[in-house]
Design a protein that fits this description.
27% of the residues lie in helices and 16% in strands. It is α/β, with parallel strands linked by helices and 337 residues long. It has a domain at 80-98 and 166-329: Rossmann fold (3-Layer(aba) Sandwich). A 7-stranded mixed beta sheet has the order 6-7-8-5-9-10-12. A hairpin with a 6-residue loop joins strand 3 and strand 4 (71-72). Helix 2 crosses helix 3 (124-138) and helix 5 (198-212) packs parallel to helix 7 (276-285). It is globular.
């Protein structure tokens, strides 16, 4: 069944991932290639003739935002990008979650569920950040600070299918611009940590409402995924029969029944750690929300050289299902072996 969980309008004019100015794709600038020498110029996409620069040569593929003059990947300008803002307290694992889920998809670890799924990191800035982050994840070393700016990726659910372009932003509280243009929100919560409680989720909700021009105390339609990170640190507390340790469904989409079971179990553990204020605040402020539990770093048992992430992709799959990018399965699917 292809029906999404919720309806999210598609923006015809995407915002620049750096300055957030909404500029039509034809108004972005292209650049002459180096062969044009001293005569090289920048020119609007609309002025390209048969894909050539004014000198009759093939220009560079990248685009330049006419407002902030930042280089923007062509796939982002020509696609229908989705913006995912990742927030959480310092040390909650938000940056590591982003790096881990991208690494997991890029290395083909979801091929048993999504044959042929592939991911490309877009732009030099995103590639440099991803190269740094994937080394940190492989070495189980946490980044000292969050890098500014977005991490842009192009995700192909199936071979030759239209790519889903995603801009990940991660910060401690989410900047106003990121929250204004976000299609989905991910909140990272560390087991047993004292924050964010009711005051933290209230501040986040107020920031979202202010950024999007919503009325005070109104419920927010933007989907929120609350991720209990570092699950490996509390594995010994979890019953082996718990949905948190159940084999991941094999379905080539989002399995609702499994997600609901994990949602309720994670909420129960958050309540066990005295996070009832957080649960109450999420329910009050966000119309669409779901709880997840994952570990990005895992452990190195049995002599493994690299950590094995567990369920890090679940929040992204839930958001993709809501965007209509992957199928939704209402019943329980056969688990992986």
């Amino acid at each position: 069944m292809r029906a999404p969980i919720w309806s999210v309008p598609t923006r015809r004019v995407p915002a620049c991932p750096y300055c957030h100015a909404r500029t039509p794709g034809k108004a972005y600038l292209r650049q002459c290639a180096s062969r044009c020498g001293e005569t090289a110029i920048q020119f609007p996409v609309s002025e390209a003739r048969k894909g050539k620069c004014p000198h009759g040569r093939a220009p560079k593929a990248r685009r330049v935002c006419p407002v902030c003059e930042q280089v923007v990947p062509r796939e982002y300008v020509e696609g229908r990008p989705r913006v995912i803002a990742v927030v959480g307290a310092a040390g909650s694992g938000k940056s590591t979650w982003v790096a881990s889920v991208i690494r997991r998809v890029a290395k083909g670890h979801l091929d048993d569920r999504f044959p042929g799924m592939s991911l490309d990191v877009l732009g030099e800035g995103s590639r440099l950040r991803h190269d740094r982050d994937r080394v940190l994840v492989a070495e189980t070393v946490l980044p000292l600070a969050t890098e500014p700016g977005p991490l842009l990726v192009s995700l192909h659910i199936r071979p030759r299918a239209r790519a889903v372009v995603i801009a990940f932003y991660d910060s401690a509280d989410g900047s106003a611009a990121n929250l204004e243009h976000a299609d989905g929100l991910v909140l990272a919560v560390e087991p047993g940590a004292a924050v964010p409680g009711d005051a933290g989720i209230t501040r986040l909700a107020e920031a979202v409402r202010a950024a999007r021009g919503l009325r005070p105390h109104s419920r927010i339609n933007m989907p929120l995924a609350v991720v209990l990170t570092k699950l490996d640190t509390v594995w010994d507390m979890v019953d082996p029969a718990s949905p948190l340790l159940r084999p991941v469904p094999r379905s080539g989409g989002y399995a609702v029944s499994d997600g609901v079971d994990v949602h309720h179990e994670t909420a129960a553990w958050l309540g066990h750690w005295n996070k009832t204020d957080l649960i109450r605040g999420v329910h009050t402020a966000f119309r669409r929300h779901r709880y997840f539990a994952a570990t990005a770093l895992g452990d190195r048992a049995d002599g493994r050289r690299e950590p094995i992430p567990y369920r890090v992709e679940d929040p992204l799959l839930w958001l993709l299902a809501g965007f209509g990018a992957i199928p939704v399965f209402r019943g329980r699917e056969g688990p992986t072996s």
